[in-house]
Amino acid sequence: MTTTYSLSVPEVPTWVRGLIFDCDGTLVDTLPLHYIAWEETFAALGLVCPLEFLIQHNGKPTDQIVGLYNTKFGQNIDVEQFTADKERQTFLLLEQTQPLEPIAMLAREYQGRLPMAVVSGSNRPNVERALQAAGLRDLFPVVLTADDGFLPKPAPDLFLEAARRLAVEPSLCQVFEDADSGLEAARCAGMLATDVRPFGGGYQVSALIHPETS
Asked: Per DSSP, what are the bridge partners of residue 99?
């Protein structure tokens, strides 16, 4: 059975004064690449990780997900070492990043019309590399990541800081997210939260299909 996703662009209400986008699975089609990195890093330890587990914790920092994996599956993985290995592998794969339409199209449409930011739970090198590879980096004067010292999603801190830097009231911001934790963070920040999964964002069946890596 094939699932068909809408090709329409999410609506931006006329009262919105600032747009904030998640990165992976929202602006850029990196989640299959991230899954490969997860799979290969677990495989190096002789372990597997169910895709459903990664979907459940999508949007959280890598080290948090590894800690949750240890708890759920009774493992004792070195969180710091695993995180470094996984992020190293991810960085190499991100040169293949493509924009994820139609959300990227919406961001291009609003460049120069509304101030825009990226708020990601990934580290800065990965976010910068993905946005550059997808040709989207120049759209965003503000990019916040897990390296910026704020509490991660679902805490609202990153989104509130993005609104501050954009000089827009949080209540006038619209957030585009593919993860439950990000949507919760946006709502907690008092922002309009838009789920991009009905538009083709987030983990899809394609995450199980490895793109060409040669």
From this structure: 28
148 is catalytic: no
- 178 located within any domain: yes
- C-beta of residue 180 within 8 angstroms of C-beta of residue 155: no
| Annotated catalytic residue, options 22, 24, 178, 195 | 22
pLDDT digit string, tens, across residues 133-151: 999 999 999 999 999 999 9
Whether pTM > 0.90 for this model: the answer is no
Question: Do 199 and 112 belong together in one domain?
Answer: yes
Measured in whole angstroms, how far is the alpha carbon of residue 167 from the centre of its chain? 23
Q: The domain containing residue 25 runs over which residues?
A: 18-29+98-208
Judgement on whether residues 81 and 24 belong to the same structural domain of the protein: no
Q: Give domain status of residue 214, yes or no.
A: no
Task: Express each pLDDT in 172-202 by its tens digit.
Answer: 999 999 999 999 999 999 999 999 999 988 8
Find all residues with CB under 8 Å of 83, minimum gap 6, and list them: 62, 63, 66
